[in-house]
Amino acid sequence: MKTNLIFLFLVFASVIGSAQTLTLKVEGIENVKGYLYIGIYNSPESFMKKPVFGFRVPVQDSVMVVPCQGLPTGTYAISLFQDENENGVLDTGSFGRPTEKFGFSNNAEGVMGAPAYKKCVFEFRQDMMMKIQLK
Asked: Is residue 114 within 8 Å of 104, Cβ to Cβ?
């Protein structure tokens, strides 16, 4: 019986120990309204096309702290935008320039479009916080 309890404890400890959380600290929110749309990508081919994890959260403050729980360890890139008018898309104006705030992991910037995956990529191996400044 004692052996079974020790075994169960070790199994549960390993499960609990393997759960990591990536926490996003999103700064630069000027208008506290709408939603933050967050896309997490795991390859250059899927970047800005099909996130492996995607979700939205309501904007409730000028600085948002968003936990991404249950994310497996790996290599990722993140894109996000603030959908102020709640139409579900990143609005653009002249020449395709965004009219709503957006950001990327590593605070990467692109020239005439989104930055390359390699500028945004990071290794996620343990609990961590990433700051992303909306532009």
From this structure: yes
pLDDT of 112-123, one tens digit each? 899 999 999 999
Whole-angstrom CA distances from 125 to 74, 76, 129 are: 7, 11, 12
Residue 44 CB contacts under 8 Å (≥ 6 apart), including other chains: 116, 117, 118
Helices (H) and strands (E) in the chain, counts: 2, 8
Q: CA geometry: angle at 68 spanning 49 and 54, to 5°?
A: 25
With b meaning 16 or more CB within 10 Å and e meaning fewer, what string describes 23-46? ebebeebeeeebbbbbbbbbeeee
Burial of 56 (0-12, 13-18, 19+ CB in 10 A): middle
Tens digit of each residue's pLDDT (9 = 90 or more) over 45-63: 999 999 999 999 999 999 9
CA dihedral 58, 59, 61, 67 (to 10 degrees): 60
